Amino acid sequence: MEQQEWTQVVGAATKAPSIHNTQPWRFTATADQLDLYVDPGRALPVLDPTGRQQVISCGVAVEFAVVALAAAGWLTEVELLPDAGDGDHLATLRLIGPIEATALDRELAAAIDHRHTVRDPFQPRDLPAQLLDRLQAEAGAFGAWFKPVTRSEEEVATVFLIDRAEEMEQGDPAYLAELQSWLRTDPAAVDGVPVEAVPSGDPHQRPSNWTIRDFVVGTRPHAASGPAHDPDAPPPEVERPTVVLMGTDGDDRYDWLQAGRALGRVLLLATSAGIAASSLTQALDWPATRARLRTRLSLVGYPQMLLRMGYPQEGAPVAASGRRPVDEVLAPASDG
């Protein structure tokens, strides 16, 4: 494969979502092989001290690359953790041979450009059960499980742990400093979370049964108050998105990569069906709340990702997060 073709594939891979849009990856390419490495310099030592979420992010990028290659007519073999002597080397993608791209291959590749994290409220529409079954099956192909949080006691427990974790994080000056360092006010920023993509109000004041991460808590005045409430107005409709928990039976770097690949596939299939998503990972950031989530929900395995999913509001603007240029993350192809 020529360098220009690898540039297109890596360009698709780097559109993968990543924790705080840190884009913690770098690539090298030869004629028939693409290698992905984690970039330790883009870590989140406070939020993600084990690197779990960083590795999951790289797993999503692996799957986006596989999808782009399939749409371009290439069958790919993926080897995870190929080099026992190099912990940063997370995956090798080898070109096996040409194939005829299917309609699904092209559909998923097109979804890469259309997928965006949506933190705003969704429409009050349930996701089709048939779609959730399909997403569950796709996740299972990577050894990951996909569990909609539907029982009231599960929802109450999960919401409580998210709120508790958010409270713990907001009380940690080191967390707030790290969060602030990845918040971007420049629309041309190539990484980080753009402030335009973050709902401006206090998430705790939002009429929803799920609390999204408060990215601007470090800049909001403590005594900030919302608009005056009309006492005669009817109560606002509470947003109840579909929330799904994804996890794996094990909890090592291989499992994290597989969880990322499953997440990438789920997000692209959801996008092609008109569904948007955003993460609710606060309860998974902290070992204590993550362990409690396993216990409270009687999970067999380890939770890796919590997603809120739904139909985005029609006409709502989407603030796309920036991406680093491909030439910053892809080393020139060589035969050596």
TrEMBL record:
Molecular function GO terms recorded: oxidoreductase activity
Family annotation (InterPro entries): Nitroreductase-like, Nitroreductase/BluB
Signal peptide range in chain numbering: none
Protein's name in the database: Nitroreductase family protein
